[in-house]
UniProtKB/TrEMBL annotation:
Keywords: Membrane, Transmembrane, Transmembrane helix. This is Uncharacterized protein. It comes from the Bacteria. The keyword Transmembrane applies. It comes from Chryseobacterium limigenitum. The chain crosses the membrane at residues 7-28, 40-61, 73-96.
């Protein structure tokens, strides 16, 4: 099985920054009360953070079975966080149109 933990860690940390940028821009423009965008971005931040944590643990562990389990957890957390970001993008698109 190909190791994905490094890729998950890199992508999760980058998208965590993107999610934080969404939340910050909503707070600055005072638009956070009008949409559920900040809730989706907040959930995505938590999930991306957890994904980073589990992928890092997967890289650092020496136990092959535990490494696979941690990598799988990180992978699913990343997928759910990505879904939240997609919902945020859909909300932005609907509000612009």
């Amino acid at each position: 099985m190909e190791k994905k933990s490094g890729h998950i860690l890199n992508a999760s940390s980058n998208l965590l920054g993107f999610s934080l940028l969404i939340i910050t821009s909503l707070k600055i423009t005072k638009l956070s009360g009008n949409t559920h965008l900040d809730e989706f971005a907040g959930v995505a931040c938590i999930l991306f953070s957890c994904s980073c944590f589990f992928s890092f643990l997967s890289i650092r562990t020496k136990n092959e079975k535990q490494e696979t389990k941690l990598e799988t957890i990180a992978d699913y957390l990343f997928l759910f966080a990505l879904f939240c970001i997609v919902l945020a993008v859909i909300i932005v698109t609907v509000r612009i149109i």
